[in-house]
């Protein structure tokens, strides 16, 4: 990768303002890029409302102060072709450094790479009392640092990672000062994808999680309906329940059937053929053969039966699935296994339209001593995330979230505004965006079921 491809020119939209500086890409997400530069560059070009990055309008995602933590992160809806540079908080004084920035050349702005050495790490004490880590720089090239280099990346040539950002020039430009990438954590945090996933898995759905943990703590066999309106996180909740609360989680047999295909919802025999294929049977097996195959699996491992889009089935076909498949399977398993079995036999019925919960089916909600596994459990209908849920979650997970989340009430208000008052998947998408992650890209890795 050519490092200079990630370096951008920061200019002003204000006529007559000829100040400029440098920035570089640190994140790409949802069609936008995030640019790291200096806070004083933002101020010099006219402030938040007057920034151009490579000729495109930019907004300020977060910023320190020019007289303090002299860093700012800009967001540009575009420049997607520019790759992010890798960041590292530590540097090695035995390595040479490179910085790439812009300088004035006649009436042009020229991008130039400079070589140098990394000096001592120093601590700056801002008027606010903040302690800011920085590096001394020594330029060994024939060309010195010039004002346009503010915001340039300081690259450790040994690892090709950015360890600092040029902030101030010293002498005639042969020396400089760079804010350490370590200091960026005070205003911005690029959250690791897996870390963000674990954090999001703690948001909301308390009633559903409580019911599920109560269910599997005492019972080895159960069927569970997860239902709600479109966009309420049915698949997200399914993965959370299995990954976080099921012993041995995904180890074992997992059978997934999508009932949205027209043939499966118009022909019951097609459903049986599909289910038979999923359990490894050929020909025209009857439900009893499928039941026996599933039962044999369960004797040695967890078995998860997942039916997506059960709302596409006619009510009669849904009743047939329960009566002809689940009821005899659960009855046979219950007769020969104790409730404390090491392995779980679970059927998940996922309704993405919020219809099935109102059907005339033998659902139960309360799990007591009279409950039998033959009766599917209806989880509480999925609802919007409330402001209190979001506030509690941000408070509990503040150490794992970007600094902007410390403005809890303001952030919650913005999230709810951008998610139609708390529709779960829109909330999760909004949080991902604020953490620099692409919700749609991450789902491919996060959701396995």
TrEMBL record:
It comes from the Bacteria. InterPro entries: iSTAND (IPR045475), P-loop_NTPase (IPR027417), Peptidase_S1_PA (IPR009003). Residues 200-350 form the Inactive STAND domain. Signal peptide: none annotated. Pfam families: iSTAND, Trypsin_2. This is Trypsin-like peptidase domain-containing protein.
């Amino acid at each position: 990768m050519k490092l200079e491809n990630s370096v951008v020119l920061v200019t002003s939209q204000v006529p007559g303002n000829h100040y400029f500086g440098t920035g570089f890409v640190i994140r790409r997400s949802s069609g936008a890029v995030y640019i790291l530069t200096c806070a004083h560059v933002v101020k010099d070009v006219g402030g938040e409302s007057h920034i151009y990055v490579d000729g495109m309008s930019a907004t300020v995602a977060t910023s320190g102060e020019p007289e303090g933590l002299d860093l700012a992160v800009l967001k540009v809806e575009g420049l997607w072709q520019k790759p992010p540079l890798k960041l590292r908080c530590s540097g090695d004084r035995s390595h040479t450094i490179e910085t790439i920035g812009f300088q004035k050349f006649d009436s042009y702005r020229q991008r130039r790479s400079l070589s140098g050495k990394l000096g001592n790490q120093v601590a700056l004490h801002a008027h606010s009392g903040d302690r800011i880590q920085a590096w001394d720089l020594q330029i060994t090239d024939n060309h010195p640092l010039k004002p346009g280099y503010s915001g340039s990346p300081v690259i450790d040539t040994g690892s090709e990672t950015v360890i600092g950002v040029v902030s101030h020039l010293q002498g005639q430009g042969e020396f400089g000062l760079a804010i350490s990438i370590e200091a960026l954590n005070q205003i911005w945090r690029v959250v690791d994808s897996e870390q963000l996933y674990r954090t999001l898995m703690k948001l909301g759905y308390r009633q559903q999680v409580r019911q599920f943990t109560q269910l599997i703590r005492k019972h080895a066999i159960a069927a569970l309906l997860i239902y709600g309106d479109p966009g309420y996180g049915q698949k997200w909740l399914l993965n959370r329940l299995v990954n976080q609360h099921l012993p041995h989680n995904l180890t074992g047999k997992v059978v997934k059937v999508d009932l949205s295909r027209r043939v499966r919802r118009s022909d019951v025999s097609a459903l049986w053929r599909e289910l038979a294929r999923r359990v490894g049977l050929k020909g025209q097996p009857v439900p009893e053969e499928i039941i026996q195959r599933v039962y044999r699996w369960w004797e040695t491992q967890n078995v998860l039966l997942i039916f997506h889009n059960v709302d596409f089935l006619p009510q009669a076909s849904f009743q047939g699935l329960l009566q002809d498949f689940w009821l005899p399977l659960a009855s046979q398993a219950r007769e020969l296994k104790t409730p404390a079995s090491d392995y779980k036999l679970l059927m998940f019925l996922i309704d993405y339209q919020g219809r099935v919960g109102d059907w005339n089916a033998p659902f139960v909600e309360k799990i007591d001593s009279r409950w039998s596994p033959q009766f599917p459990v209806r989880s509480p209908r999925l609802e919007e995330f409330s402001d209190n849920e979001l506030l509690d979650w941000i408070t509990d997970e503040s150490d794992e979230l970007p600094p902007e989340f410390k403005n809890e009430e303001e952030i919650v208000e913005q999230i709810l505004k951008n998610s139609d008052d708390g529709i779960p998947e829109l909330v999760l998408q909004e949080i991902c965006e604020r953490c620099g992650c692409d919700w749609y890209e991450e789902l491919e890795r996060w959701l396995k079921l």
